[in-house]
Structures are given as C-alpha cells and as structure tokens.
Specification:
Length: about 500
C-alpha cells in the first residue's frame, strides 16, 4: 500500500466505479491513466497501452486530436456554458443543423421532395427535423421514451374521447438482451437480467421479443463452423416471425405497441450480437405495419462505427454515418451520445420529426410543453467538440482511414479461428466481438463465475492492450485514429492472451 501511486490510493479510498465489484477492485493497484495520444494511453508509471475499446466506446478519432483540441480552446475563449432554458447559443444551433443534415441522407431527401416511397417501409420518408440535447446515452433514450409516450398518449386520448372510451397506456417493445441505459425509463426498456432485476420494483413493464443471435439461435440448424454464424446460418427467419407474432398479439388486445426500440445492426451490451443482413429492414417494416414508432438507439453504433457499407444497396456509401441508414430505415427517434463529441465531453442528442414536435405546441396555459431538461443541455464546449468531430468524420481522409482499419481488423480476426476457445467472431464495421467457449464444436459457454473474459482482458493489459469484456465476449473497437499496425498488435495480444489463459499451444 505504501508503495502504491498516490492517485491509485485516493481512488481506492474514495471512488466507486461503475459495473465493478469493488471488493475485487480493492485487491490490487488500479491502472491510473495520465495521458492519451491517438490510440495510445499512458499511465502514471509511464507504461503505454493501446486503447482497444475506444475508452468504453466513446472515442472516435483518437486522444488529443489537434482539430478537436483547437475547437474546444476557441470556444473556451468565448464561453464554456450558458443555460438552454430560455437562451440559445451559437455552437449548439450549428450542431443541430449539422445533425439534421447527417440524419437525412440526400437520396432520402430527394424521395421526400418528389413524393416517392421508401424501399424499406412502403410509407413516405420521415425526415428528422428537431434536436433535443441532453447529457449521455441514457438520457437520450429517456427523452425519446418520454416523447414517444406522450405523443402516443395524446393521439390515443383524442381518438378515445371521440369514441367515449378510456385510452390504454402506451406500451413499448424492445429486444431480448436490450440495454438502453441506466436512468429508470431507459432501464425499463432493457432486458438483461443481470443489470435490471435489482430495480424491477422501480420500473414500468416493457415487453421483449426474440433478438437475432445467429450463433446461439435455437432455430439455426447449422453445425458450428469456423466463421461468423451469420454466414452459415440455416433458418427460415423464425426470429422475424416472432416479431410479427408479438405485434399481432398486442394489436388484438386493442393496445398496439407505441414503439419498437432497438440498436441497429448490432447489440452492444448484449454481447456484440450483430443482426443478419435484412433483419433490421424487415423488423422495421413489421413495426410500421402495426403503426408503431421506431426508436433507434445509436449511442454505440452512430458516427461511422458500423462502417460505410450499405447492405440494402450492396454498395459502399461514405455519406452514411448512422447504422439505421445502412438498411434504409429512417426512425422516428434517433438517439445519439458517446461519439457525438468525438469522445471528449458528455453530450447527447435525440432527433425526431416535425410531426412529433408539433404535438407539443400550444398555448402557454395548455401546458403541452415537453417538461424535461438538463442543466448542461446544449453545452457550448460539447457542441464545439461535436462540430469539429463531424468535420473530421466526413473528410475523405477519415473515410479512407476507416476503410483501411476495417479491412485490417477483418483480416487479423481471421487468424483467431485456429484457437479452440474461439466460438464466434462477429464484426460490423469497426465493432468486433470474439465469443469465448470451452470448445468450439459444442459451443459450450464458460460459466460467468469462471471469469473467462475478464481473465483474458487482464492478460491483454499485461501485454499493453486495454479493453473490457462483456461476459465471455472480448470487445475490440479501435479508435479511427489507430494505425493498421496497432490493430494487428491488438489482435496479436488477444491471441497470445487466450493461449496463455487457456494454456493452448500453437496448432
């Protein structure tokens, strides 16, 4: 204890860490980060580490990016924060306009102008026009939830009043394994038992429906292969049939779901579980067919994380920075955080349509106002960082760099199939999850008490690479500023760590 770094001692004495069993934490000296440059973090002892999960999925372009640093310094020379309650400010106004532009791809805007239908839903495109700023991913979802609830309640109340009936309370549907944040409303939308059961008494009830998890899907009749399970699955889209059944059953009760809440293309906290191509588009069609709103949780997937490949058009499109658009799905609510500021400052945004915005307009004494807010809503420093981050993200240099990194990551991950404890490797853009199993031929999982994922990540830290597991899934999510060599080193450290932890020899 006496030889421990001063900041490590203070941490152990005073800090309570998130999602951490503190009894275990207090058994050893923590890594105390002092600096960061690009994809490299440096601790107080001068040791260097690769940031292999972008500082819990937030950092886009790397640490100490000169353009974001300069933008924050310029804004500091003006003002750091002023209230958005009754006041506007320059950078937040500009950011809202930029987000609306990014959230409505040009092809979609042309369809809206000429009145054509979207290929994904058979209904007129929904242009996202309004931005509500908040603090983090949880609050972005909380905003969407409250807006969708009140919008639906008001619409149904008007219909019920004319029919002389009492309107049913709006209900929400989300996916098995869903995680949408830690505020009470966001927790109520989640369905990870380990995270949510403790708070059951605080929550309203939301329903869940089967999520596509090809590797462990009971309807996938394919035997395990050394490839992403989405590539060799053998099923009849039973998961989508479950979605249809759920919506139909709720419709028959006379209380259709108000909204479907989802992470597009890949579920994060569920274990980096990707949806097979086409699932999102079809699920959105089902929801739309039953009159439900779509709430897209792009807290993790937004701002280019899922790559630039458009699965609907089977082409690459560098203009698509949100996962929903990769399958031509335009949600009614687009929830953003994490990478919004490039990972620099806590800021979030919920984008929605003019129709939903209009439902909250009225005379002062009607009290139709959206009664919700945050002290740091539309913070100037966060907005300045976000504007700089968007400029970097949409530059040709960034697009080329992300393409090269995604290709390198895909190539390097293929080398892990030789390890018997690798069950599935799942990659969407620059998001990857490696699921550890006792033996790949049986898919037998490690029990959580065996701490398989945690032990592998601890071994990676000893090799100078930092990431955090989700149970038995190792997450790799390099910042866009990482080099191909750093990506190769990251995967090599994972390979070495698995061999060491599971005592495997090179085959």
């Amino acid at each position: 204890m006496n030889g421990m770094n001063r900041f490590a001692r203070l941490d152990r004495q005073f800090v309570w860490h998130p999602f951490t069993q503190m009894r275990d934490w207090l058994q050893s000296e923590p890594i105390v980060i002092a600096e960061g440059h690009g994809a490299v973090l440096r601790d107080v002892h001068g040791r260097e580490y690769l940031d292999a999960n972008s500082s819990i999925w937030t950092n886009l372009h790397g640490h100490q990016h000169p353009k974001i640093n300069a933008a924050i310094r310029r804004q500091l020379g003006k003002i750091a924060h002023s209230s958005a309650l009754g006041l506007a400010n320059e950078p937040a106004s500009l950011l809202a306009a930029k987000l609306v532009e990014a959230a409505n791809p040009r092809s979609r805007r042309r369809e809206e102008a000429d009145g054509s239908k979207t290929p994904s839903s058979g209904s007129p495109p929904r242009r996202l026009r309004r931005v509500f700023f908040s603090d983090d991913g949880s609050t972005a979802l909380e905003v969407a939830l409250k807006l969708a609830y009140e919008f639906t309640r008001r619409a149904r109340s008007a219909d019920s009043l004319s029919a002389g009936k009492k309107a049913a309370e709006p209900k929400f549907l989300s996916l098995e394994g869903a995680y949408h944040g830690d505020t009470v409303g966001a927790v109520a939308l989640g369905h990870i038992e380990l995270f949510h059961r403790s708070y059951a008494g605080l929550l309203f009830r939301s329903d869940k429906v089967m999520a596509p998890y090809c590797y462990r899907c009971p309807f996938n009749r394919a035997r395990p292969e050394r490839a992403d399970a989405r590539e060799y699955r053998n099923c009849h889209w039973e998961c989508l049939a479950k979605v249809e059944q759920k919506f139909s059953a709720q419709q028959k009760k006379g209380n259709p779901y108000a909204a479907l809440v989802f992470e597009p293309l890949i579920q994060g906290a569920a274990g980096m579980i990707p949806q097979p191509p086409g699932w999102l588009k079809r699920a959105a069609d089902i929801a739309r067919g039953h009159g439900a709103l779509l709430i897209a949780d792009e807290v993790m997937t937004g701002f280019g994380r899922t790559g630039i490949f458009n699965s609907e058009l089977r082409t690459q499109n560098s203009g698509l920075i949100f996962a929903s658009h990769h399958e031509g799905v335009q949600p009614d609510f687009l929830c953003l955080a994490k990478g919004l500021t490039g990972g620099y400052l806590p800021m979030a945004a919920t984008l929605t349509t003019q129709k939903i915005f209009n439902a909250f307009l009225g005379r002062y004494d009607e009290f139709k106002t959206f009664f919700h807010g945050h002290s740091y809503t539309a913070n100037q420093l966060g907005a300045a960082a976000a504007l700089a981050s968007l400029d970097i993200l949409q530059s040709p240099e960034s697009v080329r760099s992300r393409q090269a990194l995604e290709k390198t990551l895909r190539q390097e991950l293929q080398t892990l199939w030789s390890l018997p404890n690798v069950g599935d490797i799942r990659q969407v853009g620059l998001l990857a999850g490696v699921e550890l199993v006792k033996e790949w031929r049986t898919r037998e999982p490690f029990a959580l008490r065996e701490r398989a994922g945690l032990r592998v990540c601890e071994a990676m830290a000893r090799r100078g690479v930092l990431t955090r597991p989700i149970g038995n899934v190792i997450v790799l999510m390099p910042p866009y500023g990482a080099t191909p060599a750093q990506v190769r080193r990251t995967v090599a450290a994972l390979d070495d760590s698995m061999r060491a932890v599971f005592r495997q020899e090179t085959s």
